Amino acid sequence: MFFWLLLACLLNNSTLGVAQRLTESAYLVDDSNGKYGLRWEGVGAISGGGATSKLLVDYPKEIQDEILDFLFKPNYGLSLQMLKVEIGGDADSTEGSEPSHMHTKEKMDFSRGYEFWIMKEAKKRNPDILLYGLPWAFPGW
Questions:
Q1: Are strands 97-98 and 91-92 parallel, antiparallel or unpaired?
Q2: Distance from C-alpha of 131 to C-alpha of 128, rounded to nearest angstrom
Q3: Quick check: pTM over 0.70?
Q4: Are 114 and 101 in contact (CB under 8 A)?
Q5: How do the residues of the chain divide into helix, strand and coil, expressed in percent and rounded to 5?
Q6: N or C: which end of the chain has fewer CB within 10 A?
Q7: Which phi and psi (to 5°) does residue 127 adopt?
Q8: CA angle at residue 124 from 81 to 94, to 5 degrees?
Q9: What are phi and psi for residue 7, nearest 5 degrees?
Q10: Alpha-carbon span 133 to 98, nearest angstrom
């Protein structure tokens, strides 16, 4: 849309005329009652399936920071607003296995794997990011 508007302005050499025509045909859509569909909740990404983000923790810190900034920093790069991660369950899930944060009922260790690390890094860059976790498998205990 923007491209065609810009092209029309350049060819027509009359930006005022194009802008006037656009505002004359503009109208307001009131969806306060939600009857027109689902609410836009933002742009998100998923890290899961056993290997989609696995190599990121092994990158040099400087490169990691560039990638993580590009993904999660507001008003920069992708500016992701949601992140959904696999909660590992010590089982193979499509591309590989992710360790569980609970090998037993009694002991939790959130330093295993990389999904909790990536969530922490996302929150560092965007405290308002929405985080979701979904188990692909469950530990055997």
A1: antiparallel
A2: 9
A3: no
A4: no
A5: 35, 15, 50
A6: N
A7: -60, -20
A8: 60
A9: -60, -45
A10: 13
